[in-house]
Records
---
Amino acid sequence: MMYSILDWKPKIGILGGGQLGWMMILEGRRFPFTFYVLESDKSAPACKIADKCFSPEQYKEFVDSSDIVTFEFEHVYDKALEYAEESGKLLPKLNTVELKRERYKEKIFYKEHNLPTPRFFIANDGEEALKILKEEFNGVGVLKESRGGYDGKGQYFIKSDIEKYEFLKNKKEKFVVEEYVNFDFEASVIVVRDKKGIIANYPPTFNYNEKGILVYNYGPYYNQEIVNIGKKLSEELDYIGTMGVEVFVVNGKVLINEFAPRVHNTGHYTLDGAFISQFEQHLRAIVGIELGSTSIISPSGMVNILGTDRVPHEVLRYGKIYWYSKAEVRKRRKMGHINVVGNNLEEVKQKIDKIIELIYPNGLDL
Amino acid sequence: MMYSILDWKPKIGILGGGQLGWMMILEGRRFPFTFYVLESDKSAPACKIADKCFSPEQYKEFVDSSDIVTFEFEHVYDKALEYAEESGKLLPKLNTVELKRERYKEKIFYKEHNLPTPRFFIANDGEEALKILKEEFNGVGVLKESRGGYDGKGQYFIKSDIEKYEFLKNKKEKFVVEEYVNFDFEASVIVVRDKKGIIANYPPTFNYNEKGILVYNYGPYYNQEIVNIGKKLSEELDYIGTMGVEVFVVNGKVLINEFAPRVHNTGHYTLDGAFISQFEQHLRAIVGIELGSTSIISPSGMVNILGTDRVPHEVLRYGKIYWYSKAEVRKRRKMGHINVVGNNLEEVKQKIDKIIELIYPNGLDL
C-alpha cells in the first residue's frame, strides 16, 4: 500500500455520461483523480465536467487511456465493457453486467444462491410467457422482457386484463414470468465492497416507485434482513464497488426485486445524509482506498424531478437541489433531484410531501 | 420573483481561480449556473472546472459575459473589480474591498461603527510606526503594512526584539500599529446576508492559526457576542454574500481581528457539517435565491494541508479529503484540507489531532 493518497493519481474511465457519472465526478474532484467519460451525447451531464469525453467509437482509446474503467449505466457500450474487462481494468467485473443483460440470468442467480426473490419461470418467447402466466399464475403477474429493461421498460403488469397483451405473442425473445407481489412497501440498500472483500452498507431506505421509476425514498429503515441479503449478493458476485439492491417487503418478509451493479438512485441521499457518499465509496473501492464510514449523520431522503423543469424556488426551503442540466426535458426523464434532511423520519417525509406538492402540483405524470 | 429556479440561468463570473472559487463552482454545479473565472494561472484549481477561464487582460470581456461578478480573492484584479462595479454586476460591492485594500481603513471602520477591535494607531510610514510602538505600546505589539496583507503577509509581531525591526524604517507606506492581544483563543463566524437584508450565520468555530495561517478549526462554539458583531458588520457594510469574521476572545471579551469579504477558510467545515454550505449560501445570496438553513447537522471541523503533498491514506479514516490539485507544492501553500465530523466537540478535536499527527509527523513547518 502506498503511503500517500497523492502517490497514485489514477485516470478513471466512466462508461456513460448521465447523472450518476456526473455525481461521481463531482465527488471525485476532491481527490487527485482524472476522469474520462465514454458517451455518445456530448451534452450529457458527466461529459460537461469530465477531463475528456470520448465517443463510443473511441472505446479502445478510452480504455487504453484509463487506469480503471467503471460504469454508471450497464445497458450499452458492450464493446467497451468487454475490452475493458480483457484489459483487466473493469470494476466491477463483467460477471455482474452479464446478469443485468439478461434478466433471466439474474433471477437464476438468486435462486441458485438462495437469495429470496418472487417466484418466477423463464419463457423462450412471448407466446410461452402468456401461456405460463395463465397456467401457473392464473393470468395475473408480471412479464418482463429479458433484455434491456430498466426504469420500468419492457415490463408488463398484468392483472385481470390479459387479453390486452395478446401482442406479446409476436415477441420472439426470452421473458421472465413472475408472480405479482402485493408488497407492503419497497425498500433498498446500498452496499459497497472493496478489493479486500470488506463490505459496508448504508442503512436501507423506504422507496416509492411509480410506473417503474423511483419517485422518492428516505431512511434510515433499519432492517437487518435486507442488509444481509445485500451483503450476501455482493459477496457471491465477488463484487467491487457500490451497488444498489431493491427489495419488496411483504408480511415482514424480504424478496429481492433486482440489483444494480453501480451507484444507485436510492443512494443519492448519502450525498447529504451521510458523511461519505455512495459515489466516494465507489471510487475508494475501485481505486483501492479503504472504505469510509457508511453511518448516516441525519435522517434523510430524496425526491426525483421527473419530466419537468418547473421547480419553484420554495422547494429550496425544504431541500437541496441537484440539477443535472440535461439539454432537453422529456416525459419520465430524470432532470434532477432534491435531497432533504430532518431530525426524524416524520420530518423528512413531511418535507418530501411538501416538495412533491410543489414540483407536481397537478400530480405525477409518468 | 420568478416561479422556477430554472427560469434564470445566470452566468457567474468569479475573480480568482483558487480553492475558494473551486469549491464555489463544485457546489454551484448543482444549480443551472454557468461559471466564468478570471485568473492569470490557467492551471489554478477553479480554472480547471470553470466553463471558461479568462486571463486578466480579458477583464472587460469577462465582466461583459457575466450576469453577476463576485470574487474569491480581493487583493488583485483592481481593474476588473472596478469595471464590474461600474457595470452594476459586482457582489459584494466595492466598498467592502476598499476596506481590505488598506488595513487602516478597515480599522477605522470598526472604530467608527463601535465594533470592538484591538487598540491601534495609524502610522504614515515605517519610521513613525516604530516610534508609536515604542511610545504607546512600550515596544511590544503588531505592525501591519496597510496594503496587500493576507495569510500573515506584511505583519510583524514584535515582542522584546524591536531592534531587529529597524529595517522597517525604510518602508514609506502606511502602517497599522496595534496592541499585542494575549488572547485566550481565536474564533470566527461565517455570516451570509442576502439582497433583502436578511442575515444568517453559522455557529462560530474555535480557530488555531500559526504564523498567520489557519491550521485547523472546529465547532460549534456558540457565542452570541461573536454572532452579533458579525451580523452588525455585514449590515453596516450593506454586504451581500458570505463573509468570514475573525475574532480574538480574551477574558470573555470579543475583539475583531479582521473580516474577509468572501467565503472563508474557517467555513470549509460547512461543506460537511451543515446541510447547506457557505459556498451555496454565497451563490444563493448573489443570485437572489432565498438563503438556506445555516444550522449544523453535526459538530465538525477542518484541517488545512499546508505545504505538503504527503497525505497518508490513514487520514481518510478520520476525515474527507478536499485536494485542490495545484500544480506545485510550496511552503505554506494551502494544498487541500480535510473535513471531519463527530458526535461531539471532543471527538472532532481528537480526529483533528490524529490528522495533524499524520500529515505533519515532524511538526508544522510554516
---
Amino acid sequence: MSGEDAPAQQQNAEEQKNQETKKPAEEPKAETKPDSPPASAATEAAAAPAAAEKAPEEEAFTYRSLVLTGYGGYDKVKLQVKKGKPALKAGEVMVRVKMCGLNFADLMARQGLYDRLPSPPVTPGMECSGIIEAVGEEVTDRKVGDKVLALSRCGMWQEVVVVPTTHTFIMPEGMSFEEAAALPVNYITAYMMLFDFGHLRPNQSVLVHMAAGGVGIAATQMCRTVKDVTVFGTASASKHEVITEGGVTHAIDYRTKDYVEEVRKISPKGLDIVLDPLGGSDTHKGYNLLKPMGKLISYGAANMLSGQKKNLIAVAKTWYHQFSVHSLSLIQGNRSVCGFHLGYLDTETELIAQAMDSILGLYRQGKVKPRIDSTFHLEQVGDAMRKMQERNNIGKIVLTTEPMKEEEKKEEAKKDDKKDDKKKDDKKKDDKKKEEGKKEEKKKEEGKKEEKKEEKKEEKKEEKKEEKKEEKKEEKKEEKKEEAKKAEN
Amino acid sequence: MSGEDAPAQQQNAEEQKNQETKKPAEEPKAETKPDSPPASAATEAAAAPAAAEKAPEEEAFTYRSLVLTGYGGYDKVKLQVKKGKPALKAGEVMVRVKMCGLNFADLMARQGLYDRLPSPPVTPGMECSGIIEAVGEEVTDRKVGDKVLALSRCGMWQEVVVVPTTHTFIMPEGMSFEEAAALPVNYITAYMMLFDFGHLRPNQSVLVHMAAGGVGIAATQMCRTVKDVTVFGTASASKHEVITEGGVTHAIDYRTKDYVEEVRKISPKGLDIVLDPLGGSDTHKGYNLLKPMGKLISYGAANMLSGQKKNLIAVAKTWYHQFSVHSLSLIQGNRSVCGFHLGYLDTETELIAQAMDSILGLYRQGKVKPRIDSTFHLEQVGDAMRKMQERNNIGKIVLTTEPMKEEEKKEEAKKDDKKDDKKKDDKKKDDKKKEEGKKEEKKKEEGKKEEKKEEKKEEKKEEKKEEKKEEKKEEKKEEKKEEAKKAEN
C-alpha cells in the first residue's frame, strides 16, 4: 500500500494500549469514520472534551499513528487511530508531534531486519519534533508549550508521543520543526562516529558512503567543522553538485566507478576514517583502505536492503561477506574497527545528551544545518519509504502530522491511476529482482555449483563454532573451579 | 647464558657488515682479546686512531654490540665487537649510545615470535639515548654533541647506531640518559593508544594490565593528565604500593583475584578503555568489560611468553584463543576494537614526531617521568631480560653501554656459584614448566581427548579459510571483469 490509501484502512489500535479490556480488535474499527479526516477528529476531541461527555477524557482522546502490522513491503505500515490518552509516569512528558524523521533502521525494521523494534503491531520511528502538551510528576526542566525534538527506540511516527524528559531537547531559536525532526539520529550518529570513535583531526581524510543521505550530509557538515579535512563522498552522479556544495571534496559515482580505485588515485596511502553504512564486502574494502592508525566505523548493513520486501539473497550475501577481524591483524596494521548504532544506545542518556549539546551548539553557530529533501504526510509514508529505499533523496525525508488538505487528496486521487501503475511497477521491479536473483542463482549453479558448497561450509563452520563455544564454556567453568580451589588453598 | 658471561663469548660481527670480504666468521674472533674490556678497546680506537696507522679509519673503528645469534633462551643474545665505521647516508646521524631500553617485543623477538626483527644474526633494540657523533649530508636540525633519544625498528642495543635524523629527538633539559632511553617506546605506545584510539576524556575508566611494567606506568601517568580518570591496574601484590602512588586508583592482584570480577564490583557498567598487552583469552575478557562506546586496544601477546624459550603450548593456547570479532557484534555493542604496535609504525615519522612532541611537552611540565627499575651493563643483558620476563621489575629496565668496572666484574665472578644455581634453577623452572605442560596435556588427553579434535577442527577451518580466500579472490576477479564489461558498454 502506498501512503495515500492509509485513511481507508484505519484501525483503532486501542488494543495495543488496553489489552486488559479484552475488546475484540475489530470492534473499535467501526467507531472511526473512514471518511472524516482522523487528525481533525483528534483535534476536536482535544479542543472540545465536553463533546464526549459520557466517555471519560481518556476515552475521547484519539490520535493518528503509523503502525507496522507485519514484516514486508511498504504497505505493512498502516495509518491507524489510537484511542485513549496515554498515561504519564513520573519524569515523562507528552509531546504533540509536528514532524517525524525517517531512518534506514525504519526500512530495515519493516523487513524484519532490525532487532531493536518490538514485534508488530508496533509504531516505528526513532525521532520527532513537536510541542510539550503535558508533563508528568518530577519533571522540572520542561513545561507545556516547549518546542522540543525527541528521540526514542521506536514509536515516534504518531501524533502524540510520551517519552522520558531526558529524551527531549529544547529546539534552538530559529530551528524549524522539519529541521528538528531531521536532526537527532543523523547528527548524533555522525558526531559520535567522527569525534568519539574517529577522533577526527585537522588534515585527515574521511570516506562517506551515501553522501547525499541523512547521515552522509550530517557527516560531511561535521567534517567541515575541522580544518582541512578531505571528504570522499559516494553518490550517484546527479547528486554530485549538491554534495560538493555541501562540503564533499571528491564526489565519486559508485555506480560507474570503483570507489577504492578512485580513493587510491587521490590518496595512495589510504584514509584516516571510513564510515561504513553498507556492510558486507564494502566493509572489507573500507578496512583495506585504512592508513596506519586509521579507523573503520561500521554503522549499518544497507546492502541487505534490496527491493521493498526482505531479499534473502541480498541478506545472505551481506551476512556471508560480513566482516570479521582478528586482534593480531589489527595490531599488525595499527587499525581500529568500530561499530555504531544509536538504536543500541537508547539507555545511554548522558552520552546522548552530551553529543546533542555539542550538536545544538554547532547549529547555533551556523556550522551544521539539516538539509530537508522532502516532507510527506503520514498518509504517504509508503511513498516516503520508497523514495529513501530507492535512494532518490538528497538529505532527510520527514513526515508531517499535518493532515492532508481536501484538494491535495483530490489531486492524489487523480494520480491514482499513476499510482496503480506505480504499484504495477513495484511488482514488475520486484519480479524483475526475483528474476535477476533467479538468473544469478542459475548462473552460479551452472557456472560453479560452488555456492551451496560454501553455504554448507558456512553451516558446518557455524556448527563448529557453536560446538567450540560450548567447549570453551566448559573450559571456563573448569578454569574457574581450579581458580576457586587455588583460592581456597 | 646470563649476561655476565658475554665478554668471554665476544665474536667479531664484521661479517654482518662486510660479508663481501668473505672472511670466515671464526677468524676475527681471535682478533679480540677476551681478557681486555671491549668497550675500552673501542674507546682507545676512537681516541687514538693514530695507533692503528696501517688500517684505514673505518677498519680501526670498533664498537660493542649485542647480537641475537639465533632464536631461543637468554644466551642467544651475545655481546660482540663490530669493526668498521658505519657509513652515513644523507639525512642520517651517528649516535654514540649511552643507554638502551628493553621492551617486550625484544623478548618476543628472541623467541622468534616477533616478525619485525630481521632474521638472526641481528642486533635487537628499539630505543636508545646518546650523543650525536656525526651527521650525514642534508642534516640541518642536528649537530655533533646534541643529546638525543632515538627510535628504530631494531639495532639499538649497541654502542654506535646510525639512524635517520627524523628518528631522533632532542632530549629536554634535565632529562637523564636513563629516562631518555626509557621513554620512546612505552610513552608513544601509551600516548597513541589512550589519546588517538582511546580518545580518553574526563571521568572515564581505564584498565591497565601489567601496571608496573614500562607501558603500564606510562599509561597510568598519561591517564593522570586527564581529570578524574579511574585507573584499574593489575600487578602482583608486592607492587601495589608503588603503582598506587603512581596513580592507579584500584590495584588488582591478578594472581589471587579474578580481575573481571574486581572491576565489575567497582564499575558494574564496565570500562571505557581496556589496554590489552596479553592477548588470548584476556582479550575476550577485556572486550566483555567494555561499556557502550568503549574501546579495547590490543597491543601485544605477552601470554605467549612462558619460560625463556618458545613455549609451544603457551603460543598455541594464545593463538587458539586469539580474539576475533564481527562487525555486527561491534555495531550491536557500540564498541571499538583497536590494534597497536609501534614496531609496525616505523615509517610513520610524522605521526611519531607529533606524539613525541606532545610527550616531551608533558615531560617538561613534570606530568610524565619514566620510572627506572634498574640498569644493567650490556654484559648483563641476560639478567635484564630474565628480570623483565619474570615480571620482577617495577618500571623500565635499561642497559648501559658503560663497561663494567673491574671490581664489579670480580663481584660478579664471586656470584658465579649462585649464577650456576640460577642456571640450574632456570633448567628446573623450564623442566617444571615442561612437566606442567605435559601434565596438562595428559590431563586433557585423559579427561576429554578433545584437544586434538579441536586442533584438527582449527586446521580444517584454516584450510577452509584459505580455500574461501581463494574463492573470494576468484569472485572478486569475476566481479571486476563484469564491472569492466559494464564500463565498456
